[in-house]
Amino acid sequence: MFFNRKRHIQRLYKRYAYGKTPLLDNKSGFLRKKKNIIKNIAPEPKKIKKIIIAGLLAGGILVFIYWIFLSPAFKINEISIEYIEFQSENAFIKDYFNSLMGKNIIFAKTESIVEKIKKDYPEFKSLVARKKFPHAIIISFSEYPLIMNVINYTEGGGVYKFIINEIGYAAQSNIENPNLPYVKIATKEPFKPNSFIISKDKIDYITGAANYFETKFKMKILESEYKIYARELRLKTEKYFTIMLDAQKPYEEQFLKLKKALVKLDIYNTPLEYIDLRIYSGSGEKIIFKKRK
Predict the structure, then answer these.
(1) Domains of the chain
(2) Which of 26, 88, 130, 249 might form a disulfide with 31, Cβ 3.0–4.6 angstroms?
(3) Higher pLDDT residue, 48 or 69?
(4) 67: helix, strand or coil
């Protein structure tokens, strides 16, 4: 072993020449190359670019958050009704939205306010609160159409007038519209304004029966009378006789009896006081009428 070590040292010296750097043979791994442990501490250009971009993004986000949440750019400062002609008449609607003034329009909740208005005022068929960026709330609405005059007679002798819409809501009181059909209704107590006074299915029956008679018999109906307790409908024609209908049975079936009776009863030329279609016989075609004296 000693001789092997000596020979190895000799091989190293053999490659040395005077004035030159000795060349060492590293085949056996005697000498090992050391890695450069000194690193470049200066930041690379790519890293600098990333830092700048990250800073810009963070700044942009902060500016955006301020612009959206804190700046006055999206503060509500106007609440208006879409149609100018309805501004004064329906100004009360805007009062519901006053709580939104000065708030951020992006996060303003209008749905619950709309539902409350529709609950308080059933005459509105639709109501929409639209956000008009950046500062305004625009309200648009439509009402159920007015379809009938109701003349309300009470047991105490009182007479009350209402105009109802298509869902039976008394939208107007103490007024008449001669362009709308009339229906008389007798009650113990008077109807209350701004309330539902007749159900929609009864409205459909009354208007349907009148329209059906005018179409099939070519005779105009002047007014109707609905008896709540008897569940009876009376139609007064332009010939000044009254047709009595059972409001619990289809009016089409009852008018069919009258249609068949026309061969014997001339309703156009005979002075009549009333025709009663409520009575049903075994054949289902019995009618009762009374001539005017």
Answers:
(1) 72-143 (3.10.20.310), 146-291 (3.40.50)
(2) 26
(3) 48
(4) helix
